[in-house]
Write a structure and sequence with these properties.
The protein is α/β, with parallel strands linked by helices and about 375 residues long. It folds into two domains: about 240 residues, 3-Layer(aba) Sandwich (Aspartate Aminotransferase, domain 2), CATH 3.40.640.10; about 120 residues, Aspartate Aminotransferase, domain 1 (Alpha-Beta Complex), CATH 3.90.1150. The strands form four sheets. A seven-stranded mixed beta sheet has the order 2-10-9-8-5-3-4, with helices on both faces. A three-stranded antiparallel beta sheet has the order 11-12-14. A hairpin with a 4-residue loop joins β6 and β7. α5 packs parallel to α6 and α13 runs antiparallel to α14. The structure holds pyridoxal-5'-phosphate. The site of pyridoxal-5'-phosphate (PLP) has 12 residues, from α3. Keywords: Aminotransferase, Pyridoxal phosphate, Transferase. This is Aspartate aminotransferase. InterPro entries: Aminotrans_V_dom, Aminotrans_V_PyrdxlP_BS, PyrdxlP-dep_Trfase, PyrdxlP-dep_Trfase_major, PyrdxlP-dep_Trfase_small, SP_NH2Trfase/AEP_transaminase.
Length: about 375
Amino acid sequence: MRLRVPGPTPVPPRVLRALGQQVIYHRSSEFKELLHDTAAMLQPLFGTRTANPIVLTSSGTGALEAVLANSLRPGDRVLTLDNGHWGARFGRLAASLGASVEAMSSSWGGGADAEALRRRLSAPDGGEFVAVLVAHNDTFTGAVTDLAAISDVVRDTSALLVVDAVSSLGCLPIEVDAWGLDLVVSASQKGLMCPPGLALVTASEKAWRRIDKVDPRGEYFDLRRARDMAAQGQATFTPAVNLVRALHEALRMVHETGLTQTFVRQAHLGRALAAGVAELGLSLYPNADVASPCVSVLRAPEGVDAAKIVATMRDRYGTQIAGARRSRLDGTVIRIGTMGYCRPDDIRLDVWQLAGAVQEQGHVVDVATAIAATERELEEVAA
Ligand SMILES: *Cc1c(COP(=O)(O)O)cnc(C)c1O
């Protein structure tokens, strides 16, 4: 099955080979060096020179929960920016830990609204939020939030800015130091060309001051211990050592390509898919100015059933794309990942196969025009 969902994403052969090496002792000097180098290679992706990225063995959600459990006390007031699926879900995680959560809603398909946030935080009771939660790249709506604009509002308040960057790290610029992002969480299986199983966390000085004051809940995800161990190139408990090896190799690949070049390539791949499928009548769900290069969320043309497109792609072509199950977009959109290990030929096949899948439902298309539109964007991308 060709895997084309917005996570988990395929893994390059080099990373698979790294993964398949013999297990090593997690207290050995070899592993220490591996973890140390991995953290050092992660720093530019997070845009930090000062924060030491912490590698946790869990999916992204485990680390999202961990940063909240380490920085919030029951009853703390939290504001979540609800502009899609993940902002609301982030708020539910905080609520599950006893926080008093308020959601600030803005329309799906746009980024989180910085101006509305400014108004909310300057209201008489707006200074009491302990944390503001935001998803960087909403993998359900395909919209990117301008984190610089959001942090511009939050950084001079006492609130922590907590960022879900699960699907954006490695694909979109993130500037922890320059933007003052307090807690940032990502995971291995989206933009980072690795299998699922590792999560990544950075914390600012402001975040650590808060975390040092809050009693940790539970041992496994105690971030103070994780910080102290990470400073010695160690994990608190037995980490997924083979996944760390895989992540190390994937990060070497990113740095061989160069970070800026990686972002440029990502942008072209996203645009190439959008340009091609637009000729098939599949239009972007998010607003064009915030459309993500990491995931294409597409509305089916009039009279075409999105769920049937997913089924045809799977059953006829052996390509797994995603619908939007368990969200309010269920049945109306399809979602395709262009993040991580995605190549121009993947995009060409996507366009060709999607043409077949919409034609099967009686929607007549001109495949040659669609392919030509794709190729124009792909001209800039190396194979
Ligand atoms: C995939 C995703 C998650 C969930 O991560 P898991 O690793 O599945 O726990 C959270 N937030 C965003 C934005 C995602 O894309």
